[in-house]
TrEMBL record:
PROSITE patterns: FKBP_PPIASE, TPR. The gene is LOC106127726. TPR repeats lie at residues 285-318. One of its GO terms (cellular component) is cytoplasm. Keywords: Isomerase, Repeat, Rotamase, TPR repeat. Its EC number is 5.2.1.8. GO terms for molecular function: Hsp90 protein binding; peptidyl-prolyl cis-trans isomerase activity. Belongs to the FKBP6 family. This is peptidylprolyl isomerase. GO terms for biological process: piRNA processing; spermatogenesis. It comes from the Eukaryota. Residues 89-177 form the PPIase FKBP-type domain. The keyword Nucleotide-binding does not apply. It catalyses: [protein]-peptidylproline (omega=180) = [protein]-peptidylproline (omega=0).
Amino acid sequence: MDPTTYRVALENGLNLKEVLTRGSILHINEGYEDLDDHLEPETKARKTFEYIGQPVKSFQELKLDPVDEKGFIKKRIIEEGGGLPLNDENTVSIAYTGYWENENEPFDLVKINKPLVVDLKDNGLLPGLQLAIHSMLVGELSLFLLSYELMYGEMGIPPRIKPKADCIFYIKLIKSIITPKQGPINFSEANIFNRVHHEVKLLYSSGLTLHKTKNYMAAAQVFRKSVSMLHRCRLADEDEEKIQEKLLIKLYSNLAICYNKLKKPLQACTSCNELNRLNSLWNNSKMLFQNAKALRMIGQFSEAEKRLRSALKLQPNNEELQIELELLLQTRDSCKQITLIGRETLEPVNDNFKREVDTLIINFKNNVNLCKLTLPSGLNKDEMDYVKEACIRENLFFNVIQKNYFLDKDVFNDVKERDDPLWTSPD
């Protein structure tokens, strides 16, 4: 029968576990409206193929690897995933499509845009699906051949569920989170570190997966949450402190990378400051590169160059560092800050100063390699008022920062007694 002839909808779907045990009652949604009647033909066709996978004529032709010892579940990975293996402490979001052998239409499906959320510890999944999902990593798409012995049994549920019939399932593991515990963590409790450490490791793995899929904002949020949990946790001894520091170094390193990807250089600098506090910056060329990149984006060219030169001493032939150094020097030259820096601060605001500020702002606005720029120190009130006026005229944000983003003591001593004006491009 043509599926487009159906004009009824179930109020709730079938729970196969209940069907197999105590039975189910079908409730028809009388207020259902067939939205397909109002769709254009192209939209209607597109909606038909929102599910994953395709039918298979012969299961014997499939080249699959066994998942369990008895061979009840066989698998082929179509798209690789990543992160830590799943366990009963995870809640996952999945999409799937199930087919019988040599049938063109799926007998069961969950679409990607409306995934099924499953608590792996407490769910109504059939054993075959449960074991299949446990074998997957986040982001993975796999084809499974599932034996009837772990699915619908010898009887089945005719006519929809065939008796003693194997089936294939295409499963996409979209997301995995730690299942919330019964009650929040009390960070003041003694001997809580092991639980926090375990959850942070799972969060860290989720953050890496999000970064891999270029979801940098979500990844940064996961890494930040992990950092907060580690800092709030009471430590029992030096061994726990070493484990904490090791994880913090990984988290701050990934945070710096994410913030640079998101064009948030101030936050990237803050992460690098924490790495320096943990003695894991100046001996790490990758993080010196990230720190230099962030400093370049806020116009701190001399500090950025210092970090790049240090990184090049660690890796003299690194092409990425050489490219960033060339970009830094070009960007510094284009900003032409030297005349402003050399001014006497007591001079009145004259036409030359205004022209220099206007040129600097226009150069900054047109430079795609800068997103924030810190002004030279020592500007008087009249000069800062003109800079603010010029920024407003060019639709730039102008504000005062009172936070130090440098690492060197001599630079810090130079800036800690004053407030530096900062202008930024509109987001």
